[in-house]
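quick one before i forget lol
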Amino acid sequence: MKIAIMGAGGVGGYFGGRLAQAGHDVVFIARGAHLAALRERGLTLKSALGDATMKVRALEDPAQVGTADVVIFAVKLWDTETAAERLRPVVASGGVVIPFQNGVESIPRIGAVLGKEHVMGGAAYIATRIGEPGTIVHTGTMARLRFGAVEPSQRAIASAFHAACREAGIEAELVDNIERVLWEKFIFLVAMSGTTAVARVPIGVVRSDPDLRWLLEATMRETWQVAKARGFALPDDFVAKQMAFADGLPPQMQASMLGDLEAGGRLELPWLSGAVVRMAREAGIDAPANRAMLAALKPFVNGRQ
């Protein structure tokens, strides 16, 4: 199976590396110092699940990839439409893009550019970052992919990609209702991203401080209410179970948005807390905790520009 990695950072770099280790034809699309390091020294994974260093094929221009069966799409949310446009030649022969991004709006956003038949849905559960150019650092042992077809024509390639992931030792699940899965992840992610970024602390501090713990739960509950208003009837104990999940995470874990904030980079805020506020308003409900999160982080949304 030929697999292209659009966005070879933490998520794309880690899972692309595991697929390359298993012998699949993987090409990484990257830029800058990270691209140079991948070309010169290869890709290094540092993980409790096994360290590895491997030679990889790395390109800057997707047009040089040729066609691919699957594109793991892991760019930041502000780059979604621009990156999707560059993938037109890669999926020209029927390939599919699987966005493993944050947020719940990637499927329609990419579909508007490439056509809905070229976009599946996906969710990644992992804490990773670029430690230095060419090196992906994995925190903890959670490394899971969930994905699924959104069009009947995608079922065969979804099954084939699932088999490829399993061959690579990746914990992967092929799901029937991927949009519900995306909302399940979104509820937790919005709260995790917002609270760790607002307080500039990892999840261990958030969950042990009564006020920050309240904020974590309040933002989850608001997003859960928005999900219900949009037709995703998640169970009444969903937020309680997500809080229990948070209690089991490594205490040093933090959301990627906090890393972006500390590095002076752009934030995915408009598509996380910002999206909750927007969708709550459209549904005629209030989301005060998310509005406060949005207000506190809004001055930093464009980084140090």
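fyi Residues 178-199 form the longest helix (22 residues).
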